[in-house]
Amino acid sequence: MRNLKYLGIFVALATVVACSDLEEVPVGRLSPDGLVQSPADVQTLINGAIGNMATERYWGRKLSLPIMLRSDMVSIGDLGTPGRRQEVNNFSMGADNGMVTALWPKAYEVIAGTNEAIFSANNLDAEPAQIDPVRAQAHFFRAYTYYHLVRLFGSIPYLDAPVEDINVALSISKTSADEVYSNIIADLEEAKLNLPDVQPTTALPSKATAAAFLASVYLTLGDFQKAYDEAKFVIDREGDFGLALEADYQDLFNAGVRSSEPLLTLDFNGFSDGDTGRDYAPALTGIRANERGNIGGGWSVAVPTINVYNRWDGRDYRKAVSLDTTGIFNGVEESFDKFPEFDSRNIQSAYIAKYTRLIGASGTGNGRASSLNYNLMRYAEVLLIAAEALNEITPGSDEAAGYVNRVRERARNGNDSGFPEDIEDGMSQDEFRDMVLEERKWELAFEFKRWYDIKRRQLGSEVFGPDGLEPQPNFDPARDYLFPLPGDELERNPNLAPNNPGY
């Protein structure tokens, strides 16, 4: 029974792994009687789990788009886009929302792949030096996937082993969010212990990657000492880990540059065959009818609010990198206030540029055949985690200010204005906290982080209020910090009831 299950997984990998940078193990040499015979075979299972992340029902659209729209920096441009997307943005989603019902099973497919890899590694007769670093990858990606799920949904089913009996799986109960976080931390600790200092590709996690995500988890939980300790572990060893801030912020979003700043990326390699390996962010964020970049224009779905453009200081180099303020129509460059003249579904606002400007092999499908690497964690975020956490432990330290100043130095890009300035002495703890959250907002703009910052700091009533970047009268702090559990899952398994409050 298990061999048949493995066989199905390996056959699926022939398609899934083809779109990644990861080396594919030929399926034909894996015999049905002993499918997992070496650490390389376990790596194939892990590569398949990563491949499942690069699909439309996960990062391609169903995870990345909701966490972008849920923030206060991005709204719906084309009001003709499907209602399920608008409901996420407008805080009016229900348990039948199609973004949620598609994301949930795909996330658990990723988790199933990691569970199979861990099970196989544990039962493989191999030298610890060969198998432990591979198994550590599976622990990391299981933690990574659950980290998204628990922040989005709260208490969820927690599976840590392959499913042998489908009836058991269909009757599982929810695990408390606290316990899920404990399991995430345990997986990341295991990964940190056994992963190498450096990987051949940032599509695979290193020891520094695990520590960085531990820092992020602890920051989310409000354990600031441990968040600082894990971030400092990375910072103190940046040379050993081969880490550095990229000199030019634009190169972080250039498919032709391999940077030393990312600690983890999800890679797209110009592969657009079905929904596996397609990069939907260029299409979703692009300007309709725009002739720049030869991608055929975008869909004008996820668009920054005009307040983002108006309140982002123009002296900050990150603004020029992050936003497109002009488009080319009929061979003429036009400013964003004229965009609706060339397609009525465009809005009068600057558009996200990070996923449409330098995306490599992008000649087809509105940019869906891009070769971008998505930064899921980069070194600048580690510095900002350390600064935020240290401010909570020891307010007013030069060390915390120094981490922010490293990030700001790059944001100046050598401009004559000297903006953004280095941190001034004498900031109170509250002032520093507000400042570093603002710094994260601009440094990590449109990188799928802002919603989680709003949630962990409980900023919703402020940022979605009348003076926020995106006023949202529907926002209800008693309901909207969590997504609804999928209604179809509750129908199949009543043990998951009740749904989250308000749904």
TrEMBL record:
Belongs to the SusD family. This is RagB/SusD family nutrient uptake outer membrane protein. Residues 463-503 are annotated as: Disordered. Signal peptide: none annotated. Gene3D superfamilies: 1.25.40.390. The keyword Signal applies. Residues 37-219 form the SusD-like N-terminal domain. It is found in: Cell outer membrane. Keywords: Cell outer membrane, Membrane, Signal. Residues 348-503 form the RagB/SusD domain.
